[in-house]
Amino acid sequence: MITKAREYLQHYFGYESFRSGQEAIIERVLAGKNTAGIMPTGGGKSICYQIPALLFPGITLVISPLISLMKDQVDALVHNGIEATYLNSSISASEAYTRMNDIKQGKYKLVYIAPERLDHSAFQQEWQHMNLSLVAIDEAHCISQWGEVV
C-alpha cells in the first residue's frame, strides 16, 4: 500500500517524495497500528493521516480544536480533489444536517470535527452506523485544554 501512498502524494499533493518521518508514520497507520506522529510545525503531519484516509475504504474522522484550521484544511483538500468537510459551530444547524446526510451517503473521505462534538449523544449514535476507518487527532498538544476526560 505504500506504493499507492507515494502515488497519491504526487497526484493529490504534488510532492515527489515524503518528508523525513512521514513514510514511517503512514506505514504504521496503514498497518492499523495506533500511531503518534510528532513533527515540527510545518513538518507535514496532516499528510500522515490524509493519505491513509484516501487508501482506507471508509471515513477518516479528524478531531481538531481550531475552527479556522479545519476550514483551511478542508478548503485545501477540496482544492486538491479530495472530498472533505467539517462540522463545527461556524455552520448552521441545517447545513450540519445536510453534511451529516452526505457523510452517511459516503460523499466524504475526511470529516473534521471539534472535540466537543464528541460529547453529544446524538452525534455518537450517528457515528455508530458509519463506515469509520480511521480517527486522527490534529493539534494533539491541545488535548489537555479540551477539558476533563470522563
TrEMBL record:
Residues 26-150 form the Helicase ATP-binding domain. GO terms for molecular function: 3'-5' DNA helicase activity; ATP binding; DNA binding; four-way junction helicase activity. It comes from the Bacteria. It is an enzyme of class 5 (isomerase). Keywords: ATP-binding, DNA-binding, Helicase, Hydrolase, Isomerase, Nucleotide-binding. Its EC number is 5.6.2.4. It catalyses: Couples ATP hydrolysis with the unwinding of duplex DNA by translocating in the 3'-5' direction. GO terms for cellular component: bacterial nucleoid; cytoplasm; replisome. One of its GO terms (biological process) is DNA repair. Belongs to the helicase family. RecQ subfamily. PANTHER family: ATP-DEPENDENT DNA HELICASE Q1, DNA HELICASE RECQ FAMILY MEMBER. This is DNA 3'-5' helicase. It comes from Peribacillus asahii.
